[in-house]
Amino acid sequence: MSTETEVQPVVTKTPKPKPKKRRFLWLFLFLILLLGGTIILSYPLGQQFERSQQALQQQVNLLNTQVVTLQTELQASQSQDHQAPLNSLQALFKGLSKQQQDLESQLTYLVRQIEQQPQNNEDWKLAEIQYLLKIALQRLQLAYDPESALAALKAADQRLQYLNKPTLFQLRTQLLEDIKRLEALEGPDTERLVVSLSQYIAKADQLPLLKAHYEASLPTPEETMPVEALSWQEWGWQTVKQFLVIRYNKEADTGFMSPGQKALVGQILHLRLENVRFFLLRHDTQNFAASLTSVRDWLKRYYDQNEKTVKALQQDLMAMQNTDLNPPLPNISGSFNLLQNILASKFEASPMRQKETIPPTSPSKAAPVSTEESETSSLPPVTQREVVAQ
Predict the structure, then answer these.
(1) Residues 285 and 205 occupy one common structural domain
(2) Can you give the pTM of this predicted structure?
(3) Sign of torsion, CA 242 244 249 252?
């Protein structure tokens, strides 16, 4: 018996896809809600921004108004504050212009006077004599050079003698007295001392050093005895002593110095002599004497005193020992001061000085005098002459 099996096909149902329209709908609704929320939230912020911008604009306008007000006030204050100084400066400028015109007229007058009197050179000679006297004072008091000061005084006396003016007789008498005072000055011959020291400095390395020596002693009784009476030991010692010489020096051992040590001794002597010359040129009496003492001690310690060069150097240094490099200087300013007074009196009596005098005016018509003019009129005559020259 056969059974027939019927196979029925299995049918599977696939799920139906959701429609896409719903997705787009929800997305569209979300965007609408987001845009509306953004608009709602940004509205108060925009209002606040507009209000702050308006407030800032008002502050800027207020500041501009204040700046304009301050500029106006500043211009007004400057015009008020500088008006008075401006007036004073204008008055001062007028006064200076008038003074410049006066100076120009005075200069023209001086040029005319010089052109009219070309043969009168007395003022130039007096100015030259004044310059020579000033040079003499400077060379004597500042440079301590009496020779140059004396030469300047003698040159001034020659020019004064050439003028041959009876009014200058007192000046020449005073000048001759100053020359005598300067000639009577007994000072050291600095140039000769410097030259002598320079020569010894150049020969400092060539001076002979002290050699080791010994003093011969008298023979002992044993040495005077005949050879037959001496023992062989004594005879041998006397024989050796004829060939062996023991030299000694208690003060210095220059005989046993190396060449380098001997050169060092010469260099030290050279430096000490340079020190002596330095204090001589500075006119330092105390340090000059101390330096001479140190050089003499050094020579006595390391150099041979029996040599001619060393002995001559010692004698010259001993002669310099008590030299006074700063003797009291004479007063030679009498002729210079007298010439100053003569020039001042000539300026007072000159036509130029008489022209400067102004006749007194009435108080009602007196012009205002500036501060500079009042100060200039109160100066002494010599200072006024210098102001006019400027």
Answers:
(1) yes
(2) 0.44
(3) positive
Beta-carbon contacts of 229 under 8 Å, excluding residues fewer than 6 positions away, are none
Same domain, 230 and 281: no
User: Which residues constitute the domain of residue 272?
Assistant: 189-209+254-326
Asked if 270 and 191 touch (Cβ cutoff 8 Å), the reply is no
Q: Give strand pairing partners of 303.
A: 209
Q: Are residues 204 and 263 in the same domain?
A: yes
Quick one: 201 and 235 in the same domain?
no
Q: Cα(332)–Cα(140) distance, rounded to whole angstroms? A: 9
Q: How far apart are CA 52 and CA 260, in angstroms?
A: 99
* Of 126, 130, 125, 123, residue with least CA distance to 336: 130
pLDDT in tens, the chain (390 residues): 444 444 455 445 555 555 566 777 888 888 888 887 778 877 777 777 778 888 888 888 888 888 888 888 887 776 665 666 777 888 888 888 898 999 998 888 888 776 665 445 777 888 899 999 999 999 988 888 888 999 999 999 999 888 878 888 999 999 999 999 998 888 788 888 889 899 989 988 888 887 754 444 445 555 555 656 667 667 777 776 666 555 445 555 555 677 888 889 889 999 999 999 999 888 888 999 999 999 999 999 989 888 888 999 999 999 898 888 888 889 999 999 999 998 888 777 765 555 555 444 444 444 444 444 443 333 333 333 333 333
Kindly state whether residue 50 falls inside one of the protein's structural domains: yes
Using alpha carbons, list the distances in angstroms from residue 256 to 208, 212, 214, 259, 260: 14, 8, 15, 10, 12
Both 196 and 222 in a single domain? Answer: no
Crossing angle between the packed helical segments 83-116 and 21-81, to the nearest 10 degrees: 50
| 299 neighbors 313 (Cβ within 8 angstroms) | yes
Q: Please, are residues 280 and 325 in contact by the beta-carbon 8 Å criterion? A: yes
